């Protein structure tokens, strides 16, 4: 009986991958490619107009798999699908900042209300974390293969950890996470360098929401400790968090588009998108593997590991900052002598 269950799950995962790859390919076709185009500007890392509807195909494939298998929890799935629909409108027509944040906080509070109970004092903290995660994914959808690869690795780690913690009780979270990872892999077929299509807000916002919501749901169900999702997605968190902190220190508008993320600076200093993605994948795999391996460790051991990874990511950021300053000084020197 167990073999039949695993065989069925394998079919669902492979089917989701194929369906996502097919949907995304259709959205990249000549007929639909012009629906929503990301036109390059002075803040872009790409050079030609590129469709940004890949997230629609990803989320559609995931929705088919989730509805077919009746996989939940609905507290995660329903808000995520509603966010995908709303932010497709944002991709096509544009929504105001207030509307965007109102929708994200509504989704966060709906999830907390349906998946609780949680102590009331935690509600604002968890809601802010979920909204931050949703926007974090949006921030990182700017280089070929980067956000898609993070989804495959991050949600794949969730699936492994949930199944490993409790094969029966964790099955719902494990299958949900595996379906999202498979849909992201199908998208990555067309998003890896050279990227033919990007996620767009209809994909990046729901993915970021689910990264946080599934993380909270797994913690609430006892599948992993509270720090587990943070370590799994720490590469993304470090880049966006440090970038935002520096912009606030320099009194820059945090809502204004820019090219000062660490991954963007590496591209601007000469790294190829492929090199960046492969190095990011390696770092993401290491942090995710550490999280899975330490899931049942004591808080003291986990604290040492978290501190170690925080120091390592800070050193990586410092090295990029140092090279960026050297590169900027070199460019300024060349401009003065020319």
Topology:
Elements: H1 2-28, E1 37-38, E2 50-51, H2 54-69, H3 74-93, H4 97-115, H5 123-139, H6 146-165, H7 171-191, H8 201-220, H9 228-232, H10 234-249, H11 262-268, H12 273-293, H13 299-337
Antiparallel strand pairs: 1-2
Q: How are the strands of the largest sheet arranged?
A: 1-2
State the order of secondary-structure elements, H for helix, E for strand. Answer: HEEHHHHHHHHHHHH
Range of strand content: under 5%
- End-to-end C-alpha gap: 74 Å
Task: Give the tally of structural domains.
Answer: 1
The average pLDDT value, as a whole number, equals: 87
| Biggest sheet details | 2 strands, antiparallel
Radius of gyration, whole Å: 20 Å
SS summary, helix count: 13
Question: Low-confidence parts lasting 5 or more residues at pLDDT below 50?
Answer: none
Structural class call reads mainly alpha
Tell the overall outline.
globular
Number of strand segments: 2
Helix content: over 70%
């Amino acid at each position: 009986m167990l073999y039949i269950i695993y065989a069925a799950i394998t079919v669902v995962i492979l089917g989701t991958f194929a369906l996502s790859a097919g949907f995304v390919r259709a959205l990249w076709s000549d007929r639909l490619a012009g629906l929503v185009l990301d036109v390059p500007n002075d803040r872009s890392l790409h050079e030609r107009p590129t469709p940004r509807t890949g997230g629609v195909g990803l989320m559609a494939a995931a929705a088919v798999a989730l509805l077919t298998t009746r996989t939940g929890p609905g507290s995660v799935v329903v808000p995520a699908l509603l966010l995908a629909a709303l932010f497709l409108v944002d991709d096509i027509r544009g929504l105001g900042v207030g509307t965007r944040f109102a929708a994200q906080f509504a989704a966060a509070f709906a999830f907390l209300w349906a998946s609780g109970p949680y102590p009331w004092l935690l509600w604002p903290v968890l809601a802010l974390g979920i909204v931050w995660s949703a926007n974090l994914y949006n921030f990182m959808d700017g280089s070929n293969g980067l956000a898609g690869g993070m989804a495959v690795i991050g949600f794949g780690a969730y699936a492994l950890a949930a199944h490993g913690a409790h094969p029966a009780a964790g099955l719902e979270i494990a299958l949900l996470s595996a379906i999202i990872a498979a849909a992201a892999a199908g998208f990555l077929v067309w998003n890896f360098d050279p990227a033919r299509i990007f996620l767009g807000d209809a994909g990046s916002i729901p993915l970021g929401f689910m990264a946080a919501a599934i993380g909270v749901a797994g913690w609430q169900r006892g599948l992993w400790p509270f720090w587990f999702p943070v370590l799994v997605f720490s590469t993304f968190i470090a880049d966006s968090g440090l970038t935002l902190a520096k912009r606030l220190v320099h009194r820059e508008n945090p809502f204004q588009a820019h090219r000062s993320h660490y991954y963007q600076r590496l591209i601007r200093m000469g790294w190829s998108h492929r090199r960046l993605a492969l190095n990011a994948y390696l770092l993401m795999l290491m942090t995710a593997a550490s999280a899975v391996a330490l899931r049942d460790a004591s808080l003291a051991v986990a604290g040492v590991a978290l501190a170690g990874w925080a120091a390592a990511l800070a050193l990586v950021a410092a090295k990029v900052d140092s090279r960026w300053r050297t590169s900027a000084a070199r460019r300024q020197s060349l401009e003065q002598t020319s």
